[in-house]
Amino acid sequence: MVTANLHEIFGRRPVVILGAGSELRGDDGWTYHLINRLKEFVPADVHCIWGSTLPENFAGKVVQLSPASVIVADSADFGAAPGTFRFFSADELADEAPLSHRMPLKDLARLIEQRAGCPVHFLLIQPENIEFSLELSLPVSRGLEQLINNIRQILNIK
């Protein structure tokens, strides 16, 4: 399912990938690694932004890039096995703000959708550990590698 969503999203560019989370909280920092790895190979019409714990501070930059789609990548407990990815719409997200962000991601999505006129998709991974750590858990690390490989294939990059 995630691969099908990625095919659809990357089929219309430009795309912005906005990473959210804290690289100091274990698996919550998976998007830090994703953004840095993607910057090594994605084409110029795929923009990768590390938003850290304040992704809302980058909403203006996202809008300036005039994307066809935005992916906000983060971690969340959605009851799956650690390392599992799932796409969510803003309407599927909880109303309360996650602990690592000041603005609820649901509100950030609405802001970007209104100003950029494009859909915002949430790519979330089920974390195993969000305690203080600079390391990713094995399931999240494996999931990240699979996601990067899927994106390479979709973008036809060897």
Provide structural commentary.
- The chain is of the alpha/beta class and about 160 residues long.
- The protein has a single domain (about 1-155), classed as HybD-like (Rossmann fold, 3-Layer(aba) Sandwich), CATH 3.40.50.1450.
- Helix content is about 35%, strand content about 15%.
- It is built from 5 helices and 5 strands; from the N terminus they run αβαβαββαβα.
- The chain has a 5-stranded mixed β-sheet with strand order 2-1-3-5-4, sandwiched between helices.
- Strand 1, helix 2 (about 30-40) and strand 2 (about 45-50) form a beta-alpha-beta unit.
- Secondary-structure content class: alpha/beta
The CATH topology annotation reads as Rossmann fold
Q: For the record, what is the CATH homologous superfamily label?
A: HybD-like
| N-to-C SSE string, H for helix and E for strand | HEHEHEEHEH
Evaluate the radius of gyration: 14 Å
CATH architecture annotation name? 3-Layer(aba) Sandwich
